[in-house]
Specification:
Rhopdopsin 7-helix transmembrane proteins; three-stranded mixed β-sheet; 10 helices; 3 strands
Length: about 300
């Protein structure tokens, strides 16, 4: 008779990752290590640049600094374990470690979802009500919006984690992924995961739809306002301030929609892994690059910071 354990220290998970491709272990390690280094330097660099440059002490960059913080934390929750599993044979992770990785990853991905929505609202106010921008986007409101994003991320994650903990598991469980993702965890459960899966579906659907409604509504008003501008230069300036944010939104939501909206019959574990790598490892690296390369103020601040350091 097989013993079924629940929330026990004897329960462990084995993250297969990309172990079915032994010849790619070293190249993948070097690739992901490079991406992680760029992610850490890019996001922490963005935070420091915004912090020390008074010109960047505006609501837009306040939100951007928190987006960079979330990306840094999100990547740090996932990538070190991925790198470890690429160079060692023992790919086990404890029950507590797996659940904590899921909990933290869920907190940061939900927070980022709504942080991008908050940034869309910020751009809406900046473009559609420029004269009232500093009044509407007060420090109090900005802090409230950021706090609400973190709080909702924690609330969603606690709920999903609670229902995961209600499931039962056998001693050793093989997860065909590099991360403790919800679908992979419930797939090795010994109990019926129906409620946990439904809670995830409702939560993910609500988060995705509500955030996209905020984003799309904001950009409909932005587009309408911009097209009414008599000056071509004014339209270009308005679009340029939104270009970086739109790029980040398209990549983030596009990947998540691809990953979770592709029918199971046509998706494979390899496709899931590749998509998961993109939104857990690659996107946190892309965001600071997108904002630094497409934003004149950030580029000038970085150049000034580098020149100051070199002169010292």
């Amino acid at each position: 008779m097989t013993m079924v354990l629940k929330n026990s220290d004897e329960v462990t998970f084995i993250l297969l990752g990309f172990s079915e491709y032994p010849d790619l272990q070293v190249p993948l390690f070097l690739l992901f290590l490079t991406i992680y280094i760029v992610t850490v330097l890019g996001n922490l660099g963005m935070i420091v640049t915004i912090k020390i440059n008074p010109k960047l002490h505006t609501p837009m960059y306040f939100f951007l600094s928190h987006l960079s913080f979330v990306d840094f934390c999100y990547s740090t929750v996932i990538t070190p374990k991925l790198l470890e599993n690429l160079v060692i044979e023992d790919r086990t992770i404890s029950f507590t470690g797996c659940i904590m990785q899921f909990f933290l990853a869920c907190v940061f991905v939900v927070t980022e979802t709504f942080m991008l929505a908050v940034m869309a609202y910020d751009r809406f106010v900046a473009v559609c009500n420029p004269l009232l921008y500093t009044v509407v986007m007060s420090q109090k409101l900005c802090s409230l919006l950021v706090g609400a994003s973190y709080s909702w991320g924690i609330a969603c994650s606690l709920t999903l984690t609670y229902f995961l903990l209600e499931l039962s598991f056998r001693g050793n469980n093989i997860i065909n992924n590099f991360v403790c993702e919800h679908a992979a965890i419930v797939s090795v459960s010994c109990s019926d995961p129906y409620i946990s899966q439904k809670i995830l579906l409702v939560s993910a659907t609500f988060n995705e739809i509500s955030s996209l409604v905020i984003i799309l509504t904001s950009y409909v008003f932005i587009f309408t306002t911009v097209m009414r501008m008599p000056s071509t230069g004014g339209r270009q300036k308005a679009f340029s301030t939104c270009a970086s944010h739109l790029t980040a939104i398209t990549i983030f939501h596009g990947t998540i929609l691809f990953l979770y909206c592709v029918p199971n019959s046509t998706s494979s574990w390899l496709m899931v892994k590749v998509a998961s790598v993109f939104y857990t490892v690659v996107i946190p690296m892309l965001n600071p690059l997108i904002y630094s390369l497409r934003n004149k103020d950030v580029k000038e601040a970085v150049k000034k910071l580098i020149s100051t350091k070199l002169s010292c």
